[in-house]
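Entry: Nucleoside diphosphate kinase
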Amino acid sequence: EERTFIMLKPDAVQRGLVGEVISRFEKKGFKLVGMKLIQVHRGLAEEHYAEHRGKGFFEPTVGYIMSSPVVAMVWAGKNAVALARELMGATNPANSNPGSIRGMYGMDISRNVIHGSDSLASAEREIALYFKPEELIDYKKAGEEWLSE
Ligand code: GTP
Ligand code: MG
């Protein structure tokens, strides 16, 4: 079963969108295997966005995810990484499908509500960055047999 790292960014927490977004993941069929509210410090923020170091938006983006608490989560399911990215929508809310999370709740690329891993390798890296193995819970969820063959 695939796992992906999802983070509700500071704007999601401040705007009271946490429950709404979690509900979208639950209804889609994902299984929650880890979750915590955290204040991201600079070391972690820079590590998270390491691939963007040197770009113009690096420092503002790092500053933004440190600006207020975030909700870090791991969601599991068949093809979880790609399906979560679909549910989130394009990076820039101006181009996001209107039914997607960023399409529904976002206005600007620099305040786009949610982060999700962009590949299996990123998911493994990001999960390890934010969670200890014992913070992730492997369990059977009722109804799993109705989600796929
Ligand atoms: P994340 O899930 O947050 O990683 O978004 P993403 O994978 O859809 O986009 P990417 O990893 O390319 O960029 C990371 C974050 O940096 C985005 O979510 C944006 O908030 C920000 N960002 C990316 N590109 C731009 C840009 O061109 N301008 C600005 N202002 N911010 C950007
Ligand atoms: Mg990304």
